[in-house]
Amino acid sequence: MKNGECILEVKDLYLTFNTYAGKVHAARGVNFSLNKGETLAIVGESGSGKSVTARAIMGLLPKNANIDKGEIIYKGRDLIKLSDREMTDIRGSDIAMIFQDPMSSLDPVMKIGRQITEALRIKQKVPAAEAKKKALRLMEAVGIDNVERRYNQYPFQFSGGMRQRIVIATALACDPEILICDEPTTALDVTVQAKILELIKEIQKERNLSVIFITHDLGVVANMADRVAVMYAGKIIEYGTVDEIFKDPRHPYTMALLSAMPDLETDSSTELYAIPGAPPNLLHPPKGDAFAPRNRFAMRIDLEEEPPMFKVSDTHYAATWLLHEEAPTIDFDTFKQKTLEKRRKFKEKEKNNEESQKPILEVRNLKQYFTSGFGRRKLVVKAVDDISFDIYKGEIFGLVGESGCGKTTTGRSIIGLYEPTEGEIYFNGELISRGQKHKGSRKFTREISMIFQDPIASLNPRMTVKEIIGEGLKISKLYHEDEIMERVYKMLEIVGLSKEHANRYPHEFSGGQRQRIGIARALIVNPKLVIADEPISALDVSIQAQVLNLLNELKNEFDLTLLFIAHDLSVVKYFSDRIGVMYNGKLVEIADADELYRNPLHPYTKSLLSAIPIPNPDYERTRKHIHYDPSIHDYSEEEPKMVEVKQGHFVYGSASEIKEYTKSLEIYS
Amino acid sequence: MARYIAQRLVLMVITLFVIVSVSFFVLHSMPGSFINDPRMPKEVKKAIEDKYHLNEPLIVQYGYFLKDFVRLDFGISIALQPKVNVNKILATKIPVSMQVNIFSLILSIPVGIILGIWAALKKNKIPDHVISILIIAFISIPSFVFASLLQYFIAFKLGWFPIVVTTEQTLTWSKFVSMVLPILALSFGSIAGIARYTRAELCEALNSEYMLLAKSKGLTQVQATTRHAMRNSFIPLANIIIPMFTGIMGGSLVIEKIFSIPGMGSVMVEAINAKDYPVAMGVLFWYSLVGLLTILIVDLSYGIIDPRIRIGGRK
Amino acid sequence: GNKDVDSEVGSQEVADELDEAKENEPVVYRIAGGKTVTLNPHIYQTTAESDTMSLIFGNLLEMIYDEETENYKIIGNHAVDLPTRNEDGTVWTFKLKEGLKWEDGTPLNARDYEYSYKMLLDPKLKNSRGPQVFDADIVVVNAKKYWDGECEWEDVGIKALDDYTLEITLEFPAPEIDFYLAFTGGGASSPVQEKIYEAGMNEDRTETNYGTSKETTPSSGAYKLEEWIRDQVKVYVKNEYSPIKDIYTVDRIESRVVEDANTRVQLFENNDIDTVVLSGANYDKYAEDPRLVFSKSTTVWSMFINMASEDKPFLRDVNFRKALFYAMDRKTIAEDIFKTAKPAPYVVSSFKIAVPSKGLTYRETEAAKSVLPQNDGYDLELAKEYFDKAYEAYGKKMEVEIQYFDNSENMKRVAELLEQDYENLFGADRIDIQLRAVPWNNAYDNMEEGKYDLGFGGWAGGVFNPWSSMEVYTQGFTSKIDQFKSDEFDELYMRTVKGDLIFKEQERIEALAKMEKILLDEVPFVPMYEPESANMFHDRIELITKGKYFPGVGFASLQSHFAPLE
Amino acid sequence: MKTKSENKFEFIHLDAEVLRDEKFEGEAIGFFKDAMLRFRKNRASVAAFIIILIIVVMSIFGPMINEYDYKQQNIQLALMPARIPVIEKLGIFDGVKTINVRKESIEEKYKDSLVEIVEEYKVRDVDMATIKVDMYKYKGVKDKYFWFGTDSLGRDQWTRLWRGSRISLIIAVLSMSVNIVVGVIYGAISGYYGGVVDLIMQRIIEVIGGIPLMVIVILFVLYYGPGIIPIAIALCLTGWIGMSRMIRAQFYKYKGMEYVLASRTLGATDRVLIFRHILPNAVGIIITMSALAIPSAIFSESFLAYIGLGLQAPEPSIGVLLSEGQQVLLEHPHLTIFPAFLISILMISFNLLGNGLRDAFDPTLRGQE
Ligand SMILES: Nc1ncnc2c1ncn2[C@@H]1O[C@H](COP(=O)(O)OP(=O)(O)OP(=O)(O)O)[C@@H](O)[C@H]1O
Ligand SMILES: Nc1ncnc2c1ncn2[C@@H]1O[C@H](COP(=O)(O)OP(=O)(O)OP(=O)(O)O)[C@@H](O)[C@H]1O
Ligand SMILES: [Mg+2]
Ligand SMILES: [Mg+2]
Known about the structure:
Pfam families (chain D): BPD_transp_1, OppC_N
Order of helices and strands of chain D: HHHEHEEHHHHHHHHH
Low-confidence stretches of chain D: 1-5
Number of helices of chain A: 25
Largest sheet of chain D: 3 strands, antiparallel
Bound molecules: adenosine-5'-triphosphate, magnesium ion
CATH superfamily of the largest domain in chain D: MetI-like
Structural class of chain D: mainly alpha
Strand order of the largest sheet of chain D: 1-3-2
CATH architecture of the domain at 346-582 in chain A: 3-Layer(aba) Sandwich
Protein name (chain D): Oligopeptide transport system permease protein
Oligomer: heterotetramer
CATH class of the domain at 346-582 in chain A: Alpha Beta
Membrane topology (chain D): Multi-pass membrane protein
Number of domains of chain D: 2
Keywords (chain D): Cell membrane, Membrane, Peptide transport, Protein transport, Transmembrane, Transmembrane helix, Transport
Distance between the termini of chain A: 54 Å
CATH superfamily of the domain at 346-582 in chain A: P-loop containing nucleotide triphosphate hydrolases
Structural class of chain A: alpha/beta
CATH topology of the largest domain in chain D: MetI-like fold
Number of strands of chain A: 24
Family (chain D): Belongs to the binding-protein-dependent transport system permease family. OppBC subfamily.
């Protein structure tokens, strides 16, 4: 089979789930084909049916799924018609799949080596020694070192990134022709993600694999894909080559999706484009174009008739009535124009006034250790290890760093959920770091509030929205019941929800709405400082924008100071005035947002910056990811310190490193 | 590891000591005497009780008890088998119950697990429902009804097995045959328990991501289940299976009575009823010890089954 | 004398004879019963144990069934013959046979007996059977003192004068039958083997493991233990050295511990055992079975009344107690609940012998008949009459509680029946009866301490001495469970048991009737029934007593004719 | 045609300023309501629930349905086999009993009531026969129906069974309630505060769990008599341990949940956190455990009855009936069959109900199934 030839074809796949509530129409006629050696990306919001489609190909659908119609043709055979036994032969050896979550897709109690060789030994009856040899080679290929030792370890002894590599190795063990990657990196850090993506690309080249790559991150798509299929509400609504999709999108949904991504250029004074509303409920799929209710350019026909696939070019198709000859032409530029011009401008930050010179929060030598176990099993986690920084009134201070570096812990220590192991925290000049139990500090903590990462976990499922939002007021006992209600309604209004939502329960809301409820809860107590702990990382791109806009708006309205924690640098850059970069419990660099992007000094900051995927295929093709190796620091002789190398630009390092950093600064400027 | 075990053992000794002490006072505060001959003259009765210090203040009795207890000697029985050392009584009774229990284990663990697997694989299908109903039926019919029926119909009416267990001391074929019914009667409960638990655990494991990966590697359902899901379900299963192993020293009051097995089943109840304090304390001590050891073994077994704990990783 | 725990469990000893045809085949007798707690003759508690001991422990005398007279008979076992006594009946002398041997062949003589008594009364061992020689039908000189540690063994009235002569000195004269009976059967008066008794002794000489296993239970009786697995099985075979072994036809007894009544019946039906005692529940099925025979008991079960009650004065009113007496439907209790029992409106069991020489029971005497109430003591009119009087005196609703044993279904039923009968008859507005289950030994404790209103109880006593059984109602009795007090009664008791009437047959019987009358007039308890248990013997056994049950020997099954096992 | 299609291709949202979130349809569905909705869809559980309801109703009204009273004895009619109208025509529950008699008494006693001679045989040269007898005719009470037969004092088993199930249920519910209250409080404190408090409280549990239940129950019954309350309490003495462990685990799991933290950052007190935020999560488990605890309490009660620690006579309970029945199981099976059947049905129903509730309250299944 030659490159470019079609190897897999999904035809009109229609898939439903039986649930108590009724039939969920998860895939409603999916059509696409995959060519030999290419990477096809499938993008779309959460719930649009990406995973279901992939699992249908593997024949691994949940028990309550039915394939109502459609074909999946692989090498002339319709996979749907095959028995489970026959599918077993195809799985792994012909088509392999990588799942989203590397933490749970490896069997926790089986040695890594056995998991890789398992399929070889069982299916191809390869002798043990040979299988092992092959596994070791694969492990090397996916970039694991010390393979001999690693071979006999268990998954928990591996980091997340390494586990995902093992999953890839497992998938490759039987030399499949097609690799389906279902969001293989969403659970990982940017830096790790970058490495994994590189790896997949490399392997694909090497082995001439065909890859179906499922993701909702357009940046990743730009990096990985040859061709892109955009999915919405169980349908592919547009597909084409990566350039066509990114540069000349035709479906308004694709356009909206592309517009919603903040890039490094936009700054927080402009509103982000946000797709309004929420994806349709697939229990009752809408008539006509499913996107119509959220589409600014929806036409009457969109509500009535489903659009067919219109051909744009040989490789580019889109299902939208806008391509109908009689319809008005809306191309990407007009879309941008029409939508972006309407974007509000936020107030410019006023810097350098008296107020903002005064730190509202001072963190001094904060240390937060966690100990678990006792005796020999005692384990001390230095989650935060001696950090100091100030936040000034009215500013947004961004805190970035990889997962587990201590960002959340920092935030929680500030609000008093933990009693610091060492160090002081001053709020408006008063010491508050004595833990929650102290009556005195409670008064101050009321002026600090927090927005949480997980919009599901942070709302009590058993309370109504109004109870959730009103709780802070109730606890403070400063207001009457009626007064509380009034304020709750006002707050709902402010975050874009209405009065009638007040009696609803959180599970009835979409992710974005829930996060807005969380924001309302944090703001209703009139805080001076808000700690936003990754408020958008759990959200879809399109909804991220909604929330960011809201925060942006509220910041001005309420005159807030924000500590904004995130791992997505592009978002932090868009949103923050100053940024602190954390690594392994320590702050390694603090600077103004622009300054940091322009002149990153610490190698970790550089690595982080280079790993951000940008939804621009041209950029992605040239991007080089800088790896960071902490062992380059030699602190055995010189004590590392935080040093201000330029006004407002701090970096962490030993004296000699600082000297080098300063030198490079000069070169930049 | 050794240090951890040592720590646990020290804690265990303390707990055990408290259990034994509390039980001592509770037991001795029962009204009545181990002498139940009402015609015996009062002063004779008192004299005999005096011999066993039973008329002294509890705290003094406790002192006497502790003196022997530190040597793990519970003294002699005063009512169940008068003059026989308590530990010796247990040493003759426990093996009898164990014989039956071991076979019951050998039967119930595999059968229970297989039924559980089957039900889990056929979840919400007919085999699952049938097994589930059977399981509940096994659990819900009181064992004394069950054992009586087995004895009456299978042993007495059909004559397939002897009515009571034979008296041979070694395990011969005929002895084994006579033990079949009590083994069955004993097993129904544990089969049901294991099957139920296995089913629940497996249902969870079957839905896990690693099962998906295993299947996407090309393993069949059966291979994936046995190689991955079962292994992972085994950790919680250890919670009920290990106590079964240590529980083989106990006996079932009802079943032993019906099939005339001279085992541990009735010892505790009889000792309490007869106010045989030494026996009651002895049984209590050894059972508590086994119970606490079981907890320890279960905890340690996690380490053996689950490498995350064995190698010291965090959960 | 023991308190009956539950009448349903009776004794299980039986016998047989060799079949001519199968001369060399041993005669096997298979039985099932309860657990044996101990075979130490100095501390045993139950009749089941003493029955077992009768097989393996010889004694000076032995009671057997005599085919000629068709009655029981006492013969010498280790003793050459019946003992001789001095004139006033206080010093008795046994002559022992020569060449007696223990199971292991070592000689057994009068010194063994003396040692055995010495140990029985040892002040350190504090054997619970000790009182048998100082607080029973016979009272040995200084035995109590020695038991209390207050005198030397030399002062005690038990002496082996030489190897073949044993002399017993009593504090009070004893009637012959009482004295003989004290030395028959296996139990506290059988000898223990010094060698083994001493070997099992602990350092302080406070405990011995004698009789706790086959090894520590040497036989001196007609049978010896071949196997004893605790709580499971005992096998007895003939003891070659026993002088009376030929009296018994059974060569081998296999006794299985089976505690469940249903299981026993199934084993019997399945021909796995040769005899079974039927419980009331199983009786119905065999009610018309020709294999049924009935054994008797010396106990009359009664409902005791706390006639000294502080807080319930109506219990002190004899009218109230009489009302309960006459309102008791004994027939229903005996025949419908217990199935096999007999209604008993009297104190002394119909099984007790008053004239041993003639085998005449007390109840058959004229004196006894004269105190018997009409119609089994069931007279509702009379009952109501008495109750009305009592109610009038008390003036308000009477609340009483009946305590019953928590381990006996039948007793529970009796209580339930009485509750209904009494409430119906006297009116639920006038009397309210509550029931309360109590473990049986606590029930007796409660009664001793007077912490009850109404409660069931019964005393077993020697078959041959109805007089001494009256002790339990005297004021001096230490474990008294009734609250009855009468000087007249006590005096009569002393005269019949230790005083002038001992050897006066007729007056003694009349005195007994008088005592019974006093009790029936005062009603410290309401007699209810006397149990009889239904036994079934396998077809192959032909009972030598033809199914009759004799005092002391029962059905004499071990002397009976056995067809060989199939 | 043209105009029509132009119409079709007209923008419809263009003027709208910003698209707003959709409005909700229907009622707000609270957590419990949602659970109930999902519970109702589980047919087996609903059926089980209905059966339990029927049993509960029967345990209240069952004893009143016929003319008999639970303690009214009629010893002449003791141990009558079951006889149910209509069904008796099928040859079961028709008041017929198989007995062994001497052949001569067939003529004497059973002439009228004889249904059939099953077998004739000889014992010790006496002619015997196994015959089927219509006991109602034999006793001359052909007009009476004891639906479930009578016990050894001639009391109506139907009435006693329902009365007994009432008492068993009361005991079960009583002990379960106490278990829940104690278990929840204990588990909540232990789980919420953790650390040393937890360590000590768990050791206490170990000790209490180590003392054999039997001793405590016997003591209890000795002191307080075998009434409903003492037995119920006796079942509680260690029964709450399981509940407290579950609750503790729940607390461990939920006390770190983000919404709990959120509330804490707002200054919520421990009480609010425990009762408003954490405990409601355990409600599902509590309800499920309760449903499962009831049958096991009934079971324990019947075991106590079996070893003689039953209720105060003449009060019946399922356990008392069973242990009475077991003694005559082979001879009078009707005394065992009906209570055994009832207890099995109860167990099965409560188990199914428990499973249904567990699914209904499982938050992970929320919304989807
Ligand atoms: N087992 C199931 N039972 C019922 N509905 C299901 C099931 N699995 C998926 N669905 C529904 O099918 C639709 C498509 O799900 P799918 O997992 O394919 O989404 P996705 O595009 O992969 O989203 P994500 O980015 O969140 O992974 C969703 O509405 C989902 O709720
Ligand atoms: N309560 C705790 N007990 C013990 N260790 C903890 C605790 N909370 C956090 N840690 C550890 O401290 C480290 C820092 O955790 P933290 O949650 O602050 O990281 P983070 O930067 O917020 O990561 P993420 O991006 O994944 O949220 C981690 O290794 C974590 O495991
Ligand atoms: Mg997905
Ligand atoms: Mg975090």
